[in-house]
Write a structure and sequence with these properties.
The protein is mainly alpha-helical. The protein has 9 helices and 2 strands. It has a two-stranded antiparallel ribbon. α2 runs parallel beside α4 and α4 runs parallel beside α6. The longest helix is centred in the first third of the chain and has 13 residues. The two termini are about 30 Å apart.
């Protein structure tokens, strides 16, 4: 709290003085009232997995890690059981590559100091084969987590200049794809387009 300035009138002129001298002496004295600390309790917002999938459980565990909570061993075991040959699938019984599961499992394991054992060469091959932007987005995010330098030119088939297409080589711009692009790269032209066209608050915040 800033010092409050209290004004003291130390000399009050009499009627006689006022005739002869109309000046007034004012002394400003700072008084320190100390500080007030206000501690607000903010509840921990936990993400609960909606499905028993690698990506959903990894999101839940990531948030628990941020809060410094102990991670359930059975859920960690589930994540590890989804690890395939250089990537992650959504469930232990599946063997197909899932970009979203690979991203969040990699993110979680790196956060807790474990080795995700993801094959970057395989991810690059999958990136060039990606037909929709959500798949390309998750792969690029994973490669960035692995400290690879990914440029816009590597996903240029989605780039429309002012916006981003959801489908590769499509001319139709997508609000969601454009917002996701801005999570990867700074682009003032796309940000302006998103601000001008987005209706939801989340996309506008991302554009700003």
């Amino acid at each position: 709290i800033r010092d409050r300035i209290v004004t003291y009138l130390l000399i009050q002129p009499t009627k006689a003085q006022a005739v002869q001298d109309d000046t007034l002496t004012i002394v400003l004295k700072a008084i320190d009232y100390g500080t007030i600390q206000h501690i607000e309790f903010i509840p921990k917002l936990l993400y609960k997995a909606k499905e028993l999938t690698c990506s959903d459980i990894a999101k839940e565990l990531l948030l628990m890690t941020i809060y410094g909570m102990e991670l359930p061993e059975d859920r960690l075991s589930f994540i590890l059981a989804c690890r395939q040959n250089g990537y992650f699938s959504q469930t232990p019984s599946e063997t197909s590559f899932d970009p979203e599961a690979t991203l969040y499992a990699t993110w979680l394991l790196k956060t807790i100091g474990a080795e995700p054992e993801v094959n970057a060469s395989f991810l690059l091959q999958e990136l060039f084969k990606a037909e929709t932007f959500d798949k390309a987005f998750h792969i690029v995010m994973t490669l960035k987590l692995l400290d690879y330098n990914i440029s816009e030119s590597m996903i240029k088939d989605f780039d429309l200049g002012h916006a981003v297409a959801w489908v590769k080589n499509s001319s139709k711009p997508s609000l969601k794809a454009t917002a996701m692009w801005l999570c990867l790269f700074k682009d003032f032209e796309k940000a302006k387009w998103l601000l001008d066209n987005a209706q939801d608050l989340g996309s506008k915040v991302r554009a700003q």
